[in-house]
Amino acid sequence: MRNQGLSLAKVSKEHKDIILDKVGGSTCKLGNPVDYWPPERFVGTEICEIYNTSSKTLLKDNAVDGLILALEFFTEIEFDFNIFDKIKQAFPNKPIITILIQAEHEGAKRVIKSASELKIPTFENEVERAVRGYKLLFDWYSKIKKK
Questions:
Q1: 24, 44, 58, 90: which is deepest, by most CB within 10 A?
Q2: Alpha carbon of 16 to those of 9, 20, 51, 147: distances in Å?
Q3: How far apart are CA 92 and CA 23, in angstroms?
């Protein structure tokens, strides 16, 4: 991220508390959503609600310019990726990009299909390439905001 001139946002206490409340029960003591693992239970609907609430809360924060989703999808915790349709509509000027990390093949195929339909770029096991892609999207969205 440093090489691309990007940094993690400093989320407001209010928004951080909302995320911590939703993520509660995980091993995530410092409140970093990236470290949300393992989930308290492997239930797709609960995982979906955590991503839904966390994504919306992050994107509402003025310090957050966009979202890089790091997902490790496998059958036991798979959720409906189409929740990002409404999130994209609610935050049309904030880019979203997805990185699938060690995702099971069938789950990855479903995410890539859904993400493609939603026009959310998705990368498999290519973190650096995803960050470079995010930077391009961020620059493009930044130009739109200035108009």
A1: 58
A2: 11, 6, 14, 31
A3: 25
48 or 27, which is more confident: 48
Length of the chain: 147
In a domain, 1, yes or no: no
Number of domains observed in the structure of the chain: 1
Q: Specify which residues 98 forms β-bridges with.
A: 69, 122
Is 81 within the bounds of a domain? yes
| pLDDT band at residue 138 using 50, 70 and 90 as cut-offs | confident
The answer to whether position 5 is within a domain reads no
Phi, psi (degrees; rounded to nearest 5) at 71: -120, 135
3 DSSP β-pair partners: none
Q: Which domain holds residue 96?
A: 11-146
**This prediction's pTM:** 0.79
The answer to whether residue 56 is domain-embedded is yes
